[in-house]
Amino acid sequence: xxxxxxxxxxxxxxxxxxxxxxxxxxxxxxxxxxxxxxxxxxxxxxxxxxxxxxxxxxxxxxxxxxxxxxxxxxxxxxxxxxxxxxxxxxxxxxxxxxxxxxxxxxxxxxxxxxxxxxxxxxxxxxxxxxxxxxxxxxxxxxxxxxxxxxxxxxxxxxxxxxxxxxxxxxxxxxxxxxxxxxxxxxxxxxxxxxxxxxxxxxxxxxxxxxxxxxxxxxxxxxxxxxxxxxxxxxxxxxxxxxxxxxxxxxxxxxxxxxxxxxxxxxxxxxxxx
Length: 273
Hints:
This protein is an alpha/beta fold. Helix content is 36%, strand content 15%.
């Protein structure tokens, strides 16, 4: 197996997916945290996030490219055409790993001809090394780069190679399936609460948790009775505040309710962007 311990990895963009990948590489023990670099739109917010992991927070994308051997493109897809072209010269000598939905080999060849790149769509369980990474078969990496990048990806979970036309489909299935499984599990718990079984961790002396599990306004479908989504909203548990009337919010109604169908729909939309 390829030795990745000396590889320096740079993230252009450090949102949920990039941070999940960083956590997975650090957790694997094969990639030292000190070999990871990142930049993001809000540097002041990036510094503590990187510091907590032992990573390096850098001020700009050019610094990340200079520091890294493998550059992970983890910005939002619509930003790529404005962010990457000024870096084309520096990226020419790097292995570019893209996790941006909708950006396959052909699009990168049009935007950054001559660069060595591979497009993938991971899912967030990569943070615990149990992810599924859809990996486009077509790429422009040389043999040594391909071996290195695939070695890094295999640390994060299962790598599934797919044809270019199937990359978005495979990424959507892999990206959404953890959300759907979580939705089913949580819905089972909600059904139990609805029929009288107390939810774990409820305050003592409150058999229903002060309305925990009761239907309420849902920001997934904007309906108190869920005429649109047909599902029961679940209130997040917050510690009971002094003077609160039956729940964790000062008015007895916590403002955040979840509609699982709404969350799933948002997840699919984001995966397809």
